[in-house]
Amino acid sequence: MNNKFSKRIREFKPSGTHQLLQMSERPEVISFAGGLPAPELFPVEELKAVCEAVLNEQGPASLQYSTTEGYIPLRQAICERMKTIGIESDYKNVIITSGSQQAIDLTGKLFIDEGDVIICESPTYLAAINAFKVYNPQFVEVDMDEDGMLMEELEKKLQAHPNVKFIYTIPDFQNPTGRTMKLERRQRIVQLANQYDVVILEDNPYGAIRFAGEPLPPLKHFDTEGRVIYLSTFSKIFSRVFVSDGFVPTRHSHPDMYR
Q1: How far apart are CA 187 and CA 195, in angstroms?
Q2: Torsion of CA 220, 242, 72, 54, to 10 degrees
Q3: What is the pLDDT of residue 235?
Q4: Mean pLDDT of the region 159-179
Q5: Which helix (H) or strand (E) holds 177?
Q6: Which of 11, 64, 101, 196 is most buried (CB neighbours < 10 A)?
Q7: What b-and-e string marks burial along 17-51, b requiring 16 or more CB atoms within 10 Å of the CB?
Q8: Which CATH number goes with the domain that contains 187?
Q9: In degrees rounded to 5, what are phi and psi of residue 165?
Q10: d(CA 236, CA 209)
């Protein structure tokens, strides 16, 4: 059979992330290249109990199809959780995905046309770049210092590239540098997005695992025009909650940790 794949797929190359994970599957390798949790800490027995409780209490409902936006009580619980970090939202504006990586891909599908400019930090998260590359954008990088993306440089790039679709940023414990954007720059980046009419994609997988210092409000907290898309995940804290607290949820437990 002749090659029937799309041009986009024919030009697709394996991602660096995929290659790193392949390497980590070798039993003799301890990889420091990827942020893989220690498997001996996975709460296997607790998760067995969770699955059993869900199937016992809501078995048919838990196995049934649902809307693509996700389970409404879960979306409502996420809204309550978001209030604790300064984000006011309605559950109708919340979508459940398989981690924030799927949300990154969906955002690219939603916004990017071929040739559009995506502004990102230099350096930035490899897997986000790989997800966006499928849609053939142009990447424009903005330098950082220890306090995050430089706003003067960002404004220059916005002026030079009128076809910017969105700014991709990881303001808390940025991947791969670990830097956190200071408060004044969080306010300024939203002001610039308003001024130049661009969207901000705020990726915050790490904000909930701060161990020192005061948490800063997310960019979404300063959003007055609905142009900040906020992504987060429970994959970084889920096992830690179980291991440290010995928590086994029931229908009476607080549901805000599931996403």
Answers
A1: 13
A2: 170
A3: 81
A4: 96
A5: none
A6: 101
A7: beeeeeeeeeeeeeeeeeeeeeeeeebeebeeebe
A8: 3.40.640.10
A9: -90, -45
A10: 8
Average pLDDT over residues 214-235: 94
Please state, in angstroms and rounded to a whole number, the distance separating the CA atoms of residues 69 and 92. Answer: 8
Q: Which domain holds residue 152?
A: 1-259
Return d(Cα 39, Cα 33) in angstroms, integer. 16
Q: How many CB atoms lie within 10 A of CB 208?
A: 18
* Model pTM score: 0.82
| Residue 56: both structure tokens together | 């016992």
Q: How far apart are CA 194 and CA 187, in angstroms?
A: 11
**In Å, how far are 69, 72, 79 from 84, measured between CA atoms?**
22, 19, 9
Domain count across the chain: 1
pLDDT band at 14 (very low <50, low <70, confident <90, very high): low
